[in-house]
Amino acid sequence: MQTEAHPLVNKFQLKEDLNPVFPMGVPWVRYFGTYKDLNINIIWPGKDTILGVDSVGTISASLVTYASSLALQPDLIINAGTAGGFKAKGASIADIFLASDVAFHDRRIPIPVFDLYGVGLRQAFPTPNLVKTLNLKVGKLSTGDSLDTSPKDEASIVSNDATIKDMEGAAVAYVADLLKVPAIYVKAVIDIVDGDKPTGVEFLQNLLAVTAALDQAVTEVVDFINGRCLSEL
Asked: Per the database entry, which stretches of residues form a coiled coil (predicted)?
């Protein structure tokens, strides 16, 4: 979301690409520049061209990841964003998680083998030194296209053994795996899924504070990555 992206754009002193590398007419926005020894691109999916809201969800995430990976040839993808957390799994508001595994919870295909394809379980790129140094929480991430949680979604999330849920991680993982680009997932807990507050209300209530925590965490992750090769993460 724009609220998540712009503080990092300012932090890393990035510039907007006025000659986009993307197809004409898409709303995606690229910010780029150099931070310390790293070339950084932040890709914001932009606003929906009809309704003017942030382009969230798995379709937008997969398209942006695919186009960005082809155009920019990144060494590493960092999917940074907010997520719902489960207090039963130890999550609290503003906790920062690094996802160990990602899967879908709303692609139910009850046919042998297709059921596994629907879940689409994938492992994140391993970063044991990053986790230890920054003392990050680690948990499994489950992805779906709805902000709320239906009973069927909840059952799938439990089956995925997820601690956090979002609306793009597994889509990014699918593309990253397809193109063989290492990817990690940094998520800040913005609402408690198994809490007593409506998801939408809690999301908006915590957006600014949790986004600030996310931006701080991403900065620390980038600082750690700087000067290291992937095998040292």
From this structure: none
**Residue 194 is a catalytic residue:** no
pLDDT of res. 198 = 85
Looking at 95, 106, 166, 191, which residue is catalytic?
A: 191
191 is catalytic: yes
Sole residue written with tokens 């908006």 = 204
Phi-psi region of 180 (alpha: psi -120 to 50; beta: other; left: phi over 0): left
Global pTM exceeds 0.85: yes
Low-confidence ranges of the chain (pLDDT < 50): none
Q: Check residue 49 and give its pLDDT.
A: 94
Q: Which of 4, 106, 153, 202 is catalytic?
A: 4
